């Protein structure tokens, strides 16, 4: 579909459907509603957003509305009942789930708390990295506030290396996580730690994550639309479809990218704008249902939004509005699934989320009893701080009785005229010469207990690499045993924005064959190493780290023992 036809459909849908799908419109006056509609329509036109969902609460009132298209090809409008995937704003649901389990345990006389260690939950054999201090002391609070001191390994999420068996045995693999930053002394965003928090909830609640989420949160709040993205039916009319822009053409995103496996508690929830208002009311009431049942103890709830770790300077820069802006906004801390900021004399709690074409932002102020949620289904690549964040500021100002400092014009030019705007160009794989030559020295299966398997095969005198379900491509530009990996174009248009250029380095030559391969991603600045003859045991979760290490090197030990026996025979 070309851009002109796409924009025509969006404009028609805004005009035809934009005001039809509402829930409780008492939140805004008619003039305020008109101003918000105009600002949203302007932003959708200039940013070429296919569909957008708006959820608002103020005191006991709710407002939900859909704008634009949920499905451009079938000309299905976005409504307040259309499913949108919310990415990392799922994290707050995971922290609340654990808060409910803590509250229930306390009522039964238990000792479960945010400071409960993971060894108390998973057992004494649990290890998070090889660091004995981190492994013995890391708590639920450390996971939820991104201060665990371990690496994020987000490329595992992109590669989709998690089979069902892998997920079941994830706990037995975590001792191989690299350290990253200072334990409890540094904020380091980590999706895998929220996956681990979901596993903790499963262990404590003795049920699968989504079953617990449904029983403890969704059903009590009357949320009926929610589903994890791994189980999302993209063929349904009430499912918004993901879109991206490719060379001036709007294309529907491939559903194969929208699988999170073990990472689901970090960003896998999808639900409608109407149901999101129920979530916002729950937050504004400090953890109470519509019938005033308290799901989370008041102190436990406050601890979720309480400052747990101070934001580093770069994070403050990325989120903050400083003196050049008409109204400063300073993001200062992170709680459990929430950033905390100061804006116009108030304390806000907010979080953004992106899952390729889907994105969201939630802003809540329980003191003012206001909440805002915005969701959209493209066009990827999305920059939240330039798309949904300014719109949230605009709506928040109106919601809380302030004169907005943004308007129809600056909502599109933002951050200009106050700060120079920058959008990175489409990613380029920047490869020149496909490798053609001897392949046998490079081919084989390379493994890592945490990272999975990399398979390198010969293909027409060239080398083809496969890691997980997604990262697959041909090797180019050899230089000192370092290659560049060229993914398929459709894959790189999605992953290139997240991972950047991909280097593949072979090493550890034995008898003319390479036994180690490293994969490096320039944007996430992570390196993943794999070796031949590593045993991917299916029973890792039930064995100690020392036994795991022994399994890793069983083959090498066998070879060493054979050599020693030969030497003994020679010199005896």
Task: Provide a short characterization of the protein structure.
The protein contains 19 helices and 22 strands. With 572 residues, the chain is of the alpha+beta class.
Q: In the CATH hierarchy, what is the class of the largest domain?
A: Alpha Beta
Please compute the radius of gyration using only Cα atoms.
Answer: 25 Å
Proportion of beta-strand residues: 15-25%
What's the number of structural domains? 3
Whole-Å distance between the termini? 80 Å
Give your account of this protein's structure.
It contains 19 helices and 22 strands. The chain starts with a helix and ends with a helix. It has 3 domains: 3-92 and 205-413, Beta-lactamase, CATH 3.40.710; 424-536, Lipocalin; 537-572. The chain is an alpha+beta fold and 572 residues long. It is globular and about 75 Å long. Helix 2 (30-47) packs antiparallel against helix 15 (388-399). Strands 3-2-1-14-13-12-11-10-9 form a 9-stranded antiparallel beta sheet, sandwiched between helices.
């Amino acid at each position: 579909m070309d851009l002109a036809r796409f924009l025509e459909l969006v404009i028609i849908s805004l005009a035809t459907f934009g005001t039809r799908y509402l829930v409780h419109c008492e939140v805004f006056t008619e003039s305020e509603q008109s101003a918000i509609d105009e600002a949203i329509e302007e932003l959708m036109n200039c940013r070429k957003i296919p569909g957008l969902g708006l959820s608002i609460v103020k005191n006991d009132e709710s407002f939900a509305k859909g704008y634009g298209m949920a499905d451009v090809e079938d000309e299905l409008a976005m409504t307040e009942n259309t499913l949108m995937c919310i990415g990392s704003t799922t994290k707050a649901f995971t922290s609340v789930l654990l808060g409910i389990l803590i509250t229930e345990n306390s009522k039964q006389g238990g000792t479960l708390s945010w400071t409960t260690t993971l060894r108390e939950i998973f057992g004494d054999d649990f290890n998070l990295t090889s660091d004995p201090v981190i492994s013995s002391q890391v708590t639920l609070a450390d996971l939820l506030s991104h201060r665990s001191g371990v690496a994020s390994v987000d490329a595992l999420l992109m590669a989709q290396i998690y089979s069902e068996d892998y997920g079941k045995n994830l706990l037995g693999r975590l001792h191989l996580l690299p350290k990253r930053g200072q334990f409890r002394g540094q904020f380091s965003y980590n999706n895998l730690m929220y996956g681990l928090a979901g596993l903790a909830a499963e262990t404590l609640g003795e049920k699968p994550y989504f079953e617990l989420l449904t029983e403890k949160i969704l059903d009590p709040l009357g949320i009926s639309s929610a589903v994890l993205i791994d189980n999302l039916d993209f063929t349904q009319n009430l499912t918004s479809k993901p879109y991206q822009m490719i060379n001036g053409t709007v294309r529907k995103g491939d559903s194969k990218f929208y699988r999170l496996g073990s990472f689901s508690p970090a960003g896998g929830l999808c639900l409608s704008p109407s149901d999101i208002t129920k979530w916002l009311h729950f937050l504004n009431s400090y953890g109470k249902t519509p019938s005033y049942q308290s799901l989370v103890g008041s102190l436990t709830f406050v601890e979720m939004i309480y400052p747990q770790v101070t934001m580093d300077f770069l994070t403050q820069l990325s989120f903050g509005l400083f003196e050049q802006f008409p109204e400063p906004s300073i993001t200062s801390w992170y709680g459990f699934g929430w950033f905390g900021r100061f804006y116009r004399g108030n304390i806000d709690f907010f979080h953004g989320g992106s899952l390729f074409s889907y994105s969201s932002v939630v802003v809540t102020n329980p003191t003012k009893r206001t909440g805002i949620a915005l969701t959209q289904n493209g066009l990827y690549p999305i920059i939240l701080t330039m798309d949904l964040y300014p719109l949230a500021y605009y709506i928040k100002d109106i919601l809380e009785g302030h004169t907005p400092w943004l308007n129809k014009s600056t909502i599109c030019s933002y951050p200009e005229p106050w700060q120079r705007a920058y959008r990175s160009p489409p990613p380029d794989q920047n490869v020149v010469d496909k490798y053609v030559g001897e392949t046998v020295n490079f081919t084989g299966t390379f493994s890592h207990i945490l990272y999975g398997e990399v398979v390198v095969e010969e293909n027409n005198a060239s080398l083809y690499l496969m890691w997980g379900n997604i990262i697959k491509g041909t090797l180019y530009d050899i230089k000192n045993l370092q290659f560049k990996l060229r993914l398929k174009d459709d894959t790189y248009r999605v992953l290139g924005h997240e991972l950047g250029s991909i280097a593949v380095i072979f090493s550890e030559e034995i008898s003319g064959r390479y036994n180690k391969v490293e994969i490096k991603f320039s944007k996430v600045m992570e390196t993943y190493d794999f070796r031949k003859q590593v045993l991917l045991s299916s029973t890792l979760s039930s064995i100690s780290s020392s036994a795991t290490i022994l399994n890793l090197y069983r083959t090498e030990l066998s070879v060493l023992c054979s050599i020693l026996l030969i030497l003994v025979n020679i010199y005896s």
